[in-house]
Amino acid sequence: MLIEMVKMKKTLDKNTRDELIRTAIEARRHAYAPYSNYTVGAALLTSTGKIFSGVNVENAAYPTTMCAERVAVFKAISEGECKFVAIAVVTLNGGAPCGSCRQVLAEFGLETRVLIADAQGQVVREATVAELLPGAFRPEHLLDDSRGR
Fold first, then answer.
1. Which domains does the chain have, with CATH numbers?
2. At 15, phi and psi to the nearest 5?
3. pTM score of the predicted model
4. Looking at 69, 79, 81, 140, which residue is catalytic?
5. Residue 26 appears among annotated catalytic residues
6. What gap in Å lies between CA 82 and CA 98, rounded to an integer?
7. SS3 state of residue 19
8. For the chain, where are the E strands, in sequence order?
9. Gap between the Cα atoms of 125 and 147, Å rounded
């Protein structure tokens, strides 16, 4: 029922928003960020109403670090969920998802709502993935063109 309301309104009701932000705040407590000390929590709502959390996991070899948003997406995908309604991202100061996370989210829907909140749960920005990543590279860009390359 919650998901049907979200689909009909194209917006998130207060209870859904609050639950996503609370889940991201709670997840953030488990982040592994010994190098930057910049902990991030994410909570991803799927079209079936399930919520998947994620945290950033740093590594001494910096390129192997993984962002909270992608952890949540990959957890959802590994459980058979690939249609997303919204994601809440919580950081100390309301930092936005990085470009890699935006691109991964774009793969599964440009209309996914993104709630960006600070550590107190105050939303500092709300946007769609399309608004955060205009001109996203999409699966249709991989199709062979008819010009005979």
1. 2-142 (3.40.140.10)
2. -65, -40
3. 0.89
4. 69
5. no
6. 20
7. helix
8. 41-46, 51-55, 84-90, 113-117, 123-128
9. 42
